[in-house]
## 1
Amino acid sequence: MKCHIGNTPNFALRNQSSICILHYQSTLETSFIMNLETHQSTEHKQSSMQSEGMDQFSGQRSASPPPFQFKNFEGGESTEAVKTDAGTPVLAEGGGDLLTDEQANAALAFYAQFPEDYPADLVKRLQGKLGIVATGTIDKETVQALAGYQKANDLPINGKLDAYTLPKIFAFGLATPESQESFLKGYLGIDFSTHTTTIEKMSAFTQLMNDQLRAVGVPPVKALGDPAQKDPAQFRFRKWKIAFNTDYVANHTDDQKGLDNIANACIHEARHAEQTFSMARRWAGLGLDATQLSNSLRIPLEIAEKAVASPFKDHSEQALVAGEWWDSEYGSGLSSRKKILSNYNENPTTENYNAIRSLPEEADAYRVGDEFSSALGDHRSKTEK
């Protein structure tokens, strides 16, 4: 994964010497601002015409994201995004390997580009998760085992720790089973019959999110009502707020399906808050101060200060994951993201929607939301027996 200043890759984000860090500190704000002024964000960064919730960088956006979609949401099932990798093979004839020799070699070449990102201790942890001998060296056995993990978890099958596989196999924060269970328990513990107004319902959901965000070290969010937005809930990173569609909350909390949809949206958007904070912690770990982070990522200064106080260690699993999210939203993936969003606005087909859902940070947030909904369904099935 490369870091880009403008459109020209000038050094590896994952492998920065002190000279590169100093150079990047001197150019980061300008680069970010140039990119952000054309950055076409997904739902957690959609602009609102209410001044309180406005997240516009330059006052203009040529593309806006699609409405938040759920399984079984309002009149039918949305189609799951199918994440594919060019040349993804089927099981090799006569054996259990998923990757051909050519593809396995391509995966090994991927790791060879950034050897500092895969120190022996990290590779051993990866191999331990894959159930193979922990040698500390990425070899063909490792990439084949990873391909098997990817197949089992509906991930692109390529043997690479890419933007889709990293946040799953090295899950942290809201993506861990412990956080999912805590969110589920918290949601089931809310007695919505005691919350009669829209404000009270929004407050209950915000408290649910903040309990989980605080537990994983992410600053809490504040609630905002915005009846004009398309989604039940939406993260506004510039204000560090969760905006609720007040009409949706008012009209869809008397039935279980409506409540479940809002809860799904809440954990999805809370994950976006965690992603944004993780990106700030990533750059804090590379030496940026709070003012630089605030100006560059357009987040409140107090949030940037918290990121500086808890930076990610370089070459850690969390730093690698956050780096992939940054690359998708602000780095080399920026042009592709803009095109994907524009395509949907011009032609809102299922295929173009799935392309948005397959953006790395969206795939991650949707996965977290879907895992919550699956756990919720399992819980209800057991209690009904």
Note: The longest strand covers residues 8-12.
## 2
Amino acid sequence: MKVRRKSCGENDATLACRVRLRRCTASPAQTSPLCPACYLIDGDKQRPRDGVAILGGEAFLQPVGLAVLLCRLKARSVHTTVYTGYTLEALGMRPEPAVRAALELTDLLIDGPFVAALAHGGGEWRGSRNQRLIAHPSTLLSCTPGSAATP
């Protein structure tokens, strides 16, 4: 099936992930989009979505594009789940305003790197036991930019 590409702005392409974890779901050589973000949001009216999970690669390496995507999804009342290899505390220390914006638009954050030794018993949503499921992650960050509250 061919997907007609719509113009959404500068953050429409998927960039290669620089984290390079073993057993990662994203190809390190992936430099072009498999499916433009616009199509995910606007393109398939026959199959409405009640939720979208963003995973594979590292979404917070592209915080502006991530925030734009999440904003458009939330405008359509779509539940958002974001997987990240960063911890919430590390994201809270990032200075980019788009990181905070993305966290405010995230309904469920699954944070922390995948650790193969902790894979057994990870559960349905986590790859390994060290990863946390955090509902509405921005509410756990303190009011001071660049710092994270202790949950």
Note: The longest strand covers residues 79-83.
## 3
Amino acid sequence: MRDNVFSSFSGGMKMAEKIYIIPPSRTRYLAEIAEGIRRYNQWTQAQAKIAQRLYSIAQTIDTLRELPETKSEKSQGVSCNKTGMLLELSMLYDRTIRELEPANQEIIKNWAEKVRAYKAEYFTYKVRDKEIKVETHTESLSRLKSRKFRCPGMKPGEIFYSGI
């Protein structure tokens, strides 16, 4: 009975090699991806905060410019303070805008145009030189048109989280 136990299998060096699904040099690749995503999210939050600060400074400048001057303010030198405050706020705006990435400045600058494009009857975009046209509204059984999607808020800080 013991004679039948022997095998003709000869294990050599060929079998010693392991076949890896993930190469040993890349065992942390998912952790690296997660770290990259965390860094990107932190950067996005920082850029959104800067954009919101710019928006607030611009709103303050507009509000100060719209304020009418009264006689008592002129006699007390308040208009001089108003001019000084406008100058300080303008300088603060210029310093702050340098912190915002140029690509994000373009996103904010073109945001109103993008919203108009999404609100139009068709939204058109290009993929590999092919123009794709998508209806932005749907018609109900009662013939009412309703939008298929809604654009996010218009505050600059919210724009970066929208993904459109």
Note: The two ends are 75 Å apart (CA to CA).
## 4
Amino acid sequence: MDAICINQNDIPEREAQVSIMHHIYATATDVIAWIGKDNGAPDRRAIAFARELGARGRSYLNAGHGGSDVPLDEETFAWFESITPFGLVDSIWLDFTALLERPWFSRIWIVQEVVMGKQVTVQCGPHQFEWTELFYCAIFVEAHASLLESLAAPGCLKDHDPKSAEFYFKSFPLQRLGRATDRSEASATFVHSSGCRHGSEMSPDRQSESAWPHSGAPTPTNPSASWAC
């Protein structure tokens, strides 16, 4: 709403409003974060998937897990395996990643919104979900990053599915997913460290370093040792 309510061409007005923005968010009963229009079926799939991921992430933290060294149970492994094809090609992970790559998630404004807001709801077209659900998603995905990379096995694509390999090594969906969840978790960790009411209940202390095995994009000639064909 700041883009509408503030005259963006009036620099003094914009600076004055920016200086009190944290008070506005802090005194708001509810904060609605508009991330854009609904893009149809991909967004509906992504939001439904985010809710499932969020529920798993919440259970994961409530069980006292806070890192990536927790033993993997059979049900969780089977669930990841059922939704993670080679290279993530044509999978629900692509819809979920696209949702997290919307411009809102890369704006510095979201820090004020999620830190100061007492209740933050994310609005995508007609769909609503709690911002904390995205935090739980990020925690759960980050904790299983090595498993995801192993199941996606992009290093094997060139031998088993050249067409999918071409797609993967042009768009690198696994790395995009890692960057997207890193951003969501970083914002939530800032909330937690700030001692805000809605953030203080969400997470134990966590490392700021990314859990993803590869921060950059791998190449077909240098696959990870964890990829099994």
Note: The beta strands are 31-36, 120-124, 127-130.
